[in-house]
């Protein structure tokens, strides 16, 4: 059993948790009321239901339908719509650092409208916000393109007037109204909630609502049906069919009892619109942002006061304080985060993955628990014949042959299991079906008998005379077929079916049921007196041949993908609406350690603390409804886990929305795709593992930038504090500080294209504001040691110890500060020894070289006078090289100690 140890929460519980719980409770109550209403409709007769909805078996008139459409509205459910472009644009600029930069730019403009710093900050803000807006806008359009712009119709019976004969019309589903009489056939989508009036051999696929992979049989129904008073769950009522499901076989006619938001489907979909809950990424970014802003709010006033009191020029001190604020602000963070996420989205799009919400990429990297539905995600969502067994449970091709003859020769509509048998014979080359069989008669399937029989003619040779022999082949529910059997075929011999043998073969069938298989029995009988027609009474004295066992098979790549995720430190939990036997079988097949399966009903009476404990130790939840799925997700989040959810049905939509990252597939229902953050365009689950790696790379490069920039900026400001206290002039002009930050920050634009060490990608990564603060105050002052060393060198060696020589002092510190900041990129980007054990990507190398060359060139460039620089003597550079080498050595030593002490780096 997979056990989850509660992680020390490194994130705050998503705000509004109580509101989410209230919303979930409201959803549960509303869905329960809708369910009770539908259960009441199921309990009443068809005639009563028609009277209640003021309809007749002949259908509504066109005029009545028009009035009801106006009264009840279109038959559509609530769904989330992408915000207008201008709202998306405004949201792209909603970031605490952008707010700080805008405020600083406004103050600088107020001081001096011609200040170039205003333009610099404005460009930073504009590029960052526009980059995020364009990527999310483009991703949203790609996700919308997944919806097939096809008008889906259904067959509705309507009349021109009250006395007219009914006619069947194809009308768009959104124009179906209560009281409409809808005709259903194989392949039809159920357009609304219907009470069946008539039904014949009707099987309905309900996976989107219930998660049950196999089709559900509905009762053969007539208008005089008296109802099902024992039906409490509308999904399980055999005289109701619900919106969101589809007909797999059979025919039916039903009257619409609910449309749109009033349907069972709509009651669940209505909860999925509105503001989304805060995710791990949102919480982490907010905490880290305000940590860095607190640093700035403490340091800037201190620098301002020290400079004002020591230099006496408060205007200059104010400008210098603004420059320090800009220097402390990781102004490129929004841009780097956006570029990181955009690059991740582009990389994932190459694997046919649509990233609807950019933040989901980093959440995918931080994910340490993946909750997944079973049907359509772990399985292929189709029925296959898994086994053909004799009465002892051994594989026997004779059983397959008889099953094939029954499925092949029946004249009615073949259901999914009949087709699975036919497909299996096509695959099994060792099975040869005797072409001498010919169809004589059949006894069709009905839901009372739960079996069907075909009678075939087989030519036999007895001595020198040929005669036609009729053989009946019966296939159906085990208990129904077994009740008609008097003998069984045992190793080619026909033996009497004693009570002991009957118990034995029943146990064989039950053992396969317990393995999650749907089992049918196959029996035969040779007709004593061949004739042209046969009846149900002839289904007697049968000989049991064996069993056919069916399942929804797991996807070929599911086991490999889930193993890869487990290797990446992600615990996989299955949360499905299907039954526990089927869930356990599929999970075992894909390599999940099942342990004790917990039913959804077993979570209802648990408080939040008990559910957290249960969720931590449970791997498989079965028979789980949508509200229970979402509650399990929230319980795992409350334990400090970053939770992903993979699903494709309406029953998954609430959990997809509440998870830190919701993942769906392109064949999912629209509601599920709208609730998801990431959509897989191909059902290749290995994409998830690639997405996790991409997410961790994206997160790692973001953290890398934050730690590099925050620690070096903190070190610079700490150096400024020391210099301001003891040097009679400004250690660096405000414009120099802005230029230094601009050159450094531009060099960091290549960070999203850097590579991450393989060791970093092996486990989930999460935001840790406390760890970032500890890193900044530990590593930042290291650079101050060498800044102060350069102060002393400029003061004592080069005589820059007076106001007349301040430009030389400032130029010398500018170069050393910029080059040390640039070198720190390579020291911090890896826990290994830089350049030797780990090398940066070529874009990072190129940008850092460019930054170094720019820093060395500026004091000698034509721009030098306007920026306050002076040319440095050649003797300065050996001292510079020595300081930088010493700086790299000490940083590596401190890094080694830090990793040993805290067992972490990035």
From TrEMBL:
It is found in: Cell inner membrane. NCBIfam families: ATPase-IIIB_Mg (TIGR01524), ATPase_P-type (TIGR01494), PRK15122.1 (NF011702). It catalyses: Mg(2+)(out) + ATP + H2O = Mg(2+)(in) + ADP + phosphate + H(+); ATP + H2O = ADP + phosphate + H(+). SMART domains: Cation_ATPase_N. Residues 40-110 form the Cation-transporting P-type ATPase N-terminal domain. The chain crosses the membrane at residues 92-110, 116-134, 288-306, 318-342, 772-798, 840-860, 866-890. Keywords: ATP-binding, Cell inner membrane, Cell membrane, Magnesium, Membrane, Nucleotide-binding, Phosphoprotein, Translocase, Transmembrane, Transmembrane helix. Its EC number is 7.2.2.14. Belongs to the cation transport ATPase (P-type) (TC 3.A.3) family. Type IIIB subfamily. InterPro entries: ATPase_P-typ_cation-transptr_C (IPR006068), ATPase_P-typ_cation-transptr_N (IPR004014), ATPase_P-typ_cyto_dom_N (IPR023299), ATPase_P-typ_P_site (IPR018303), ATPase_P-typ_TM_dom_sf (IPR023298), ATPase_P-typ_transduc_dom_A_sf (IPR008250), ATPase_P-type_domA (IPR059000), HAD-like_sf (IPR036412). It is a multi-pass membrane protein. Residues 1-22 are annotated as: Disordered. Mediates magnesium influx to the cytosol. CDD domains: P-type_ATPase_Mg. This is Magnesium-transporting ATPase, P-type 1. It holds the Pfam family E1-E2_ATPase.
